[in-house]
Write a structure and sequence with these properties.
By secondary structure, this protein is an alpha+beta fold. The chain has two helices and ten strands; from the N terminus they run H-E-E-E-E-E-E-E-E-E-E-H. The strands form two sheets. The chain has a five-stranded antiparallel β-sheet, with no helix packed on it. It has a five-stranded antiparallel β-sheet with strand order 2-3-10-5-8, with no helix packed on it. The structure holds calcium ion (CA). The site of calcium ion has 9 residues, from loops.
Amino acid sequence: MQLKPLALKLLFTLAFAGFAAGSAQAQLVANGGFETGDTTGWNVQLGFFGLANVTSTSHSGAYALFFGNQDSGVDNILQSIATTPGSQYQLSFWAAASGGQAWAYVDGRQVLSLPSNASSYTLYAVNFTASSTSTQLKFGSAAGGYLSGGGYFLDDVTVTAVPEPSQWALMGLGLAAMGALVRRQRAAVTR
Ligand SMILES: [Ca+2]
């Protein structure tokens, strides 16, 4: 079947829109991988913060954050990100325990409690719905026992928007359009 130019143009438009919808899910966290070599983009509260700059202790890149107790309190690291009220987002990060405990919070609400025995890097993810134009992320860490020197490695913190159903439909159409274009091109080559 020969596609008419108008239909072809429509397919190109759909393919582009689909890809645009897919690529719109940008990372919202600044310095989520700590590759600046410091805590730029984050606010730190109390305690001891160090950056592990050995690749064997980072999940990716050259740096990871090491935080936890060298004191008797909980160390917190915070960042506020721009969000759309009512929209869904996914927070994900990699973390590894070094004898400590850690917790993740969204707008002050604890969303994850990390096990103190997960000593190899583990991917954690949780979805949340934004309630305002700014959402606060917070990670807290403390040792299992005070002054025992424990803590947590944290790396690759990301927040991305979860596509709305309409965006999924658009992405699906885009993929279908790309498939149709590829099939058409293959047919043209083999002719
Ligand atoms: Ca990193």
